[in-house]
Amino acid sequence: MKLAIIGGGSVRTPRLIPSLVRRAAKLDLHEVWLMDNAPDKLRLMGGLCETLARQFNAPFKLMFTTDAREAVRGAQHVITSIRPGLEHGRALDERIAFQHGVLGQETTGAGGFAMAMRSLPAILDYAHLIAEIGAPNAWLYNFTNPAGLVAQGLHYAGIERVIGICDSANGAQHAASRYLGVPLRRVYHEVYGLNHLSWTRSVQIDGHGGTGEEVLPGLLNNEQFVASTHMSMFAPGLRRWLGSFLNEYLHYFYHRDEALAALLKKPETRGEEVERLTNDLLRQLAAATDPHEAILIWQTVMGQRGATYMAHARHDAPRPTLEPIEQDDEGYAAVALGCVEAIATNTPLYTGLNVPNNGTIDGLQDDDVVEVSCWIDAAGVRPVKIGAVPEPQYLLMRIVKQYERFAARAILARSKELAVEALAVHPLIGSYPLAEKLVSAFLEAHRDLVGEWQ
Is the dihedral of CA 389, 390, 391, 392 positive or negative? Predict the structure, then answer.
């Protein structure tokens, strides 16, 4: 098998190597191609990947290229994890949003739209390239943010073999596994919603749909469990009211004013922090003379980055963590490579993914991309039927889905008018004149990447 990673110069790419090594024999994996259009970054991250591959005795070849055609030619599986505009683009998005008095997170609200303006057209180009020269029936697994909106746009553009991946869709499964000491393969969660806007209504051990032992209510009433997860960010009354395990990004909706005020007080935005840490990492790696020293540098800086993730929601308290109990608990790497393994070897996998609704959630359109629990194997993806959901969650999901529909179509058509309508309906913006100002500011800031819109 040939696997291609578009955006192989990402600082997160080395995390894939141990997972790839563990699955290599089962996948008959011969070549892993890392492609990036930033040669210096590819060289540094590629060096880390080579060091890890040697440490883990990888049986496959690592190949490096700046040529996307070379990377995807004949590839059966392609992972896309790119950042058009790099970290500086994210920092610009957040500052523009804050200057207009709204949240600027890179996947949510105004910042999410600005990111999608750049990422959706780029991923669509790669999808067309894969269809042209990739292996027959090749699959695309997209991590590029905002994953749900990008998947929606790809679906509108007729791309069928694409799966939107985000590890936060499986947050409840991982949290229950770690806290209870139960392997992930025995934990079944029912998640529903949209990317970064999802709720988990059930966590069962050794079964799902009522066939297993239901543990979620007990966990949500367990203060030790709550304190060990991001659920501690949410108000106790909110947790009791909704009775679900909440996606961490729902904090921007349920604690909107608190989140905005906390972020505005910080000396730098999250984007600016990530940009600073990434630049520091690249400078240190460029100066490193020993490959093991380089690995230590990478681990240290990535640890700093992870420790400050959503720190505003914790009042800058340390991030709660529980250690994984097994190797398969590998975050986003496990989701992507688990899907590759399920399709390539016809080994059924149960996980949360972003896929077309097709009747899964009542009240949404069939072609709406949703975030739900799925079974996946060689036959493709089969979402678990969710049916009706509580009205408070449904109403929020429905209005954000309307935004995503408008936004995806606006980006594909390069339409200012549709873009303004998209932001005007978003609950974190909700103002037509404000939406006009935001769209104009984003188009001006990223004109070199997004071009002229009509």
Answer: negative
Which pLDDT score is estimated for 330? 61
Rounded mean pLDDT, 403-429: 98
Displacement of CA 403 from its chain's centroid (Å) = 18
Measured on CA atoms in the order 275, 97, 421, 437, is the torsion positive or negative? negative
Q: Cα dihedral angle (109, 84, 381, 335), rounded to 10 degrees? A: -90
Measure the CA–CA gap between 162 and 122, rounded to whole angstroms: 14
Q: What's residue 327's pLDDT?
A: 59
For residue 109, with 0-12 CB atoms within 10 Å meaning exposed, 13-18 middle and 19 or more buried, which class applies? buried
pLDDT recorded at residue 15: 93
What angle separates helix 16-27 from helix 39-55, to the nearest 10 degrees? 60
Could you tell me which of 266, 278, 283 has the C-alpha nearest to residue 304? 278
374 backbone φψ class: left, alpha, beta (φ>0; ψ -120 to 50): beta
Distance separating alpha carbons of residues 164 and 414, to the nearest angstrom: 22
List the structure tokens of 344.
């390539």
What is the rounded average pLDDT of the residues 394-417? 98
SS3 track for the chain: CEEEEECCCCCCHHHHHHHHHHHHHHHCCCEEEEECCCHHHHHHHHHHHHHHHHHCCCCCEEEEECCHHHHHCCCCEEEECCCCCHHHHHHHHHHHHHHCCCCCCCCCHHHHHHHHHHHHHHHHHHHHHHHHHCCCCCEEEECCCCHHHHHHHHHHCCCCCEEECCHHHHHHHHHHHHHHCCCHHHEEEEEEEECCEEEEEEEEECCCCCCCEECHHHHHCCHHHHHCCHHHHCCHHHHHHHCCEECHHHHHHHCHHHHHHHHHHCCCCHHHHHHHHHHHHHHHHHHCCCHHHHHHHHHHHHHHHHHCCCHHHHCCCCCCCCCCCCCCCCCHHHHHHHHHHHHHHCCCEEEEEEEECCCCECCCCCCCEEEEEEEEECCEEEECCCECCCHHHHHHHHHHHHHHHHHHHHHHHCCHHHHHHHHHHCCCCCCHHHHHHHHHHHHHHCHHHHCCCC
